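lol ok so funny story. i was supposed to be doing the assay writeup but got distracted and ended up predicting the structure for this chain instead. priorities right. anyway since i did it might as well share w the group, maybe its usefull for someone
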Amino acid sequence: MPLMHPIVYDEYDAIVPSLIGPLGICATSELLTLIDFLPADAPLREPGTPLLREVERQLKAYGADPAFRFDLPYRLQGTSHQRAVWERIAAIPLGELVRYAEIAWQLGSSARAVGSACGRNPLPIVIPCHRVVAKQGLGGFNANRNGVDWGPLKYTLLVHEGVL
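and the output, tada:
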């Protein structure tokens, strides 16, 4: 079993509500760097900068209308393979699902490596990794970060978008 570290809420610049529960947000003064799913009892923290307020506004807009298109400045840090997977995921239109194997074929990779990159997506929802599914079933979601099965959130997001 992987070593799990307790969630340190103070590490987030803001913790905002969303249609799927609290989201921890990290950003520089100009770039969004991380969105984390948090447990339902996570303490909310008001966004204190214009960028964080804009992130919250856009997340609320998506919650009200799944066709909302995010337009946020962000920075992705990861391997070249991870960034290539995230670029493919970012291009998946609303209402469509893509299989891990399809992205793997496009990149000359493996479905497992694509799934691993999906699980490390630092900006879920904005980069819609929930639209990537397994050959049979939905597949995993958010790599069980913080020891939590986030799979139900994937289902909720796909229902919100009218795919399921």
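The first helix runs from residue 50 to 64. Strands lie at 14-16, 23-27, 32-37, 98-99, 132-133.
back to the writeup now i swear
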